Amino acid sequence: MHPFLLISILLGYFAVLMLVSWITSRGANNEAFFIGNHKSPWYLVAFGMIGTSISGVTFVSVPGFVHDAGFSYMQMILGNFVGYILIATVLMPMYYKLKLTSIYTYLDVRFGKSSYKTGAVFFLISRTIGSAVRLFLAASVLQLALFDAWHVPFVVTVFVTIAFIWVYTYKGGIKTIIWTDSLQTLFFLIAVAITVYVIASQMHLNLHGLIKTVSTSEYSKIFYFDNFLGNKLHFVKQFLAGILICVSMTGLDQDLMQKNLSCKNIKDAQKNMLVFSIIMVFVNFMFLCLGVFLYLFAQNKGITLPLNAAGKIATDQVYPFIATGGYLPILASVVFLLGLIASTCASSDSALTALTTSYVFDILGRNKADEDQLKRTRQRVHLGFSVLLLITVLLFKLLNDKSIIDALFTIAAYTYGPLLGMFAFGFLTKHQVYDKAIPYIAIASPFVSFAISSSSKALFGYAFGYEILVVNALLTMLGMYLFRKNTVTN
Nearest-CA neighbor of 87 among 480, 427, 471? Predict the structure, then answer.
């Protein structure tokens, strides 16, 4: 694809986002930025949350993931579905009852300031790293498809991507994002549908042929029940990890919960979550099907797929390589680029707003500042986190040697574990704890979990996957139990 065509698509796309931002942010105050004035339509929130949850990671990495793990990812998705139900029925009613803007205020109410600050800090670390992973993937593809041809440094690619996101979110915040994310969700779903249609046409397959191709392929295995101890893909491990990662990365995540808190009331928020959970099962299945079509198309056409440093197929590069490498018509290349940008922006824009919200409310404690002072503070923080994301993406480029989807969930297992442990201890027990001990417990738990994960296979023959999150959370809960007080909550 010609670079000038690509740059025209990019500029046109962001012009549309800027127009939406301008319309939705007129007259926006701080309440609009943080919680959308509690006027967000639940169906728009549900549709937009698909884009926030999917991100560029799912868009590119999940189809590639099929090569090494088949449809085993669906085991986690089924666990996610259960997790979403738990969020809608357990967590969200409590958030609305306490009238929270930042969900980590619950930890202040339940345990005290140190617990509150610790929870917020772990979210800030988790979401910053997670967003950097997503941005890294998108920027890498843009670099390959566009900026390498112009000899533009990777740092400039990342800077331009983050700058665009900052520009259309800094004023309207969540009020704008509810609308832009819905638009971006539509873009990337259309992109996947068109890619599948184009590949089907190239392989002369009708709908029946597509279904048969998926069901009979070597990649179609979903459930793994063999070798519980040594197999990371075992159903029990994946399903349990799916539940807990969902509860942690959605229910205990300011980013996604901030959208839910912008609904008019708890009933609308619950309708949003339940509809969203059903759609997500089908959307992820669609991405896995796309992965099957990509690999079979490559085999059918004799395409040599890119390799990583270890000489194995670079699975994260398969979709970009086929879509932009001249193997498909220009339409497929255009919609791929739009889909990648849309999925990346949909997850990154809300993350930037959530990071700003959490830092302003939880760390700075500026929720009682006057309107003008609060506005100045949030704008400075918004800019500061944009710079921090830039730095983190560049560091990730130097350090990462994993599949992006694997890296994302591995990071989540260690950084969200203490959050899950603190909230679970608050919900499941009536114990009070020595609040000052919580930061030390939360910091120690991931390190001990990593040590257990690193040695468990050699010592016990058990290979930990993402379910190390359970160990991490349990260690946090154990630490809190050991530092409990004699008094209990009513």
Answer: 427
The alpha-helical segments, DSSP class H, found in 217-317 are 235-246, 254-261, 266-301
Does 444 have pLDDT greater than 90?
yes
Q: What is the DSSP letter of 101?
A: S
CATH code of 3-402, in short, is 1.20.1730.10
Q: What gap in Å lies between CA 144 and CA 188, rounded to an integer?
A: 19
Alpha helix stretches (DSSP H) within 146-265 = 154-169, 174-202, 207-216, 235-246, 254-261
Between the CA of residue 329 and those of 100, 201, 202, 326, what are the distances in Å? Answer: 49, 11, 10, 7
Percent of the chain with pLDDT over 90: 22
The residue ranges of every structural domain in the chain are 3-402
The pLDDT of residue 37 is above 70: no
431 φ/ψ angles, rounded to the nearest 5 degrees: -75, 145
pTM of this structure: 0.79
Find tokens 């000489």 and name the residue. 311
Looking at residue 100, what is its pLDDT? 83
Q: Are 71 and 287 in contact (CB under 8 A)?
A: no
Cβ atoms of 468 and 412 closer than 8 Å: no
At residue 180, what are phi and psi to the nearest 5 degrees? -65, -35
Containing 7, the helix (H) or strand (E) segment is helix 3-24
Question: Please, what's the largest Cα pairwise distance for the chain?
Answer: 71
Q: Which residues pair with 484 in a beta bridge?
A: 433
The rounded Cα 17 to chain-centroid distance in angstroms is: 21
pLDDT per residue over 307-356, tens digit each? 877 788 888 788 888 888 888 888 888 888 888 777 777 777 778 888 88
Q: Tokens in use for 255?
A: 């980013």
CA 78 to chain centre: 17
What confidence score (pLDDT) does residue 93 get?
Answer: 92
Q: Answer yes or no: is pLDDT of 141 > 60.
A: yes
- What integer pLDDT is reported at residue 466 of this predicted model? 77
What is the end-to-end Cα distance of the chain in Å, rounded?
Answer: 65
Query: Among 131, 76, 443, 406, which residue's Cα sits nearest to residue 244?
Result: 76
Q: Coil, strand or helix: which one is 488?
A: strand
Based on its alpha-carbon atoms, the radius of gyration of the chain, rounded to whole angstroms, reads: 22
Q: Under a CB-based contact definition with an 8 Å cutoff, are residues 321 and 305 in contact?
A: yes
Handedness of CA 46, 63, 332, 214 (dihedral sign): negative
pLDDT in tens, 148-176: 777 888 888 888 888 888 887 777 777 78
Please state, in angstroms and rounded to a whole number, the distance separating the CA atoms of residues 301 and 265.
53
Q: Are 255 and 351 in contact (CB under 8 A)?
A: yes
Q: Which two tokens stand for residue 150?
A: 């112009």
Residue written as tokens 């800094």? 170
